[in-house]
Amino acid sequence: xxxxxxxxxxxxxxxxxxxxxxxxxxxxxxxxxxxxxxxxxxxxxxxxxxxxxxxxxxxxxxxxxxxxxxxxxxxxxxxxxxxxxxxxxxxxxxxxxxxxxxxxxxxxxxxxxxxxxxxxxxxxxxxxxxxxxxxxxxxxxxxxxxxxxxxxxxxxxxxxxxxxxxxxxxxxxxxxxxxxxxxxxxxxxxxxxxxxxxxxxxxxxxxxxxxxxxxxxxxxxxxxxxxxxxxxxxxxxxxxxxxxxxxxxxxxxxxxxxxxxxxxxxxxxxxxxxxxxxxxxxxxxxxxxxxxxxxxxxxxxxxxxxxxxxxxxxxxxxxxxxxxxxxxxxxxxxxxxxxxxxxxxxxxxxxxxxxxxxxxxxxxxxxxxxxxxxxxxxxxx
Length: 381
Description:
- By secondary structure, this protein is α/β, with parallel strands linked by helices.
- It has one domain (10-376): Metal-dependent hydrolases (TIM Barrel, Alpha-Beta Barrel).
- It is 40% helix and 8% strand.
- It is built from 15 helices and 7 strands.
- The chain has helices at residues 47-57, 61-68, 85-95, 116-134, 151-164, 187-196, 235-240, 243-254, 257-260, 276-290, 295-299, 304-311, 322-329, 349-355, 362-376, and strands at residues 10-15, 99-103, 140-145, 168-170, 200-203, 266-269, 312-314.
- The protein has a 7-stranded parallel beta sheet, sandwiched between helices.
- Helix 4 (116-134) packs parallel to helix 5 (151-164) and helix 5 runs parallel beside helix 6.
- It is globular and about 65 Å long.
- The two termini are 27 Å apart.
- The relative contact order is 0.13.
- The mean pLDDT is 94.
């Protein structure tokens, strides 16, 4: 019996768990030696020990069967299908998920650099790797990625990611290279996504840390995250997660990009959604207050919040009140996700979501669990 049953489930957030040697094999030969080992500072104090356990399990059918019997139990590298494509297909069977977006986890740490050849070459290698991992199972949708540092190279790598078979493109929610993602130099990129029927994605970690580090210099004992590391999300980080995607989306609306590219769609993943009703109201207030002094704002023909309603979807956290968010933003904006196999998704995301949706209509639930995902992905079938 699968974990999820009784309706169609499309999962807007899942991950693979890399080993250091995984990415270099997809890099061009001249770049291969420059790909760094994984940086695991955010994975908790026992990351190396857990990776060793995962390596030891490989090829052990008894251990794999134990994971099948507890599909929502072990997390990270120890989960079924963490980096084995065939196992991942079996995991989907047991999860009861009909489609699943797949993001990388730590591989970006292997090539992030001010050297654009390493940055964009590593990007191409990762997009090849993601596409390959998902290529055997049509339920898996690879999320490629591009950086903002160079508009021309960003466009080239986006085209290549789409050619490889990536079904969505992850972008950072903070600019790089001195230009806003809304700058006309990036319009060819947005046009490519629109014409290719490919959504953009924002994901936690893609905007850096919104919390200024000085706030952690507070004279109190040093804290760790719930994974046992010092690089992941702690309480004050959680309070500021929404700030970078909020800036990005505000600029996309107020600079007219979502108006100009009206068929462009996107998803805001693993950054919560409790802040969404407030963002929508703030955008409408800003539109009303600044339309007399800012020509671009004045020229927007739609209500500012309606651009988000029309073109962007959000994944709530399992600890958020989904019913309240739907009541205050609309039933067309939220997406179901498991975050498999990351621990943040919890061992029972459906149960936690359902506990807050007792007053939500069946139609709204259908939207949450799969129809909004299909709209975001441009699936009109």
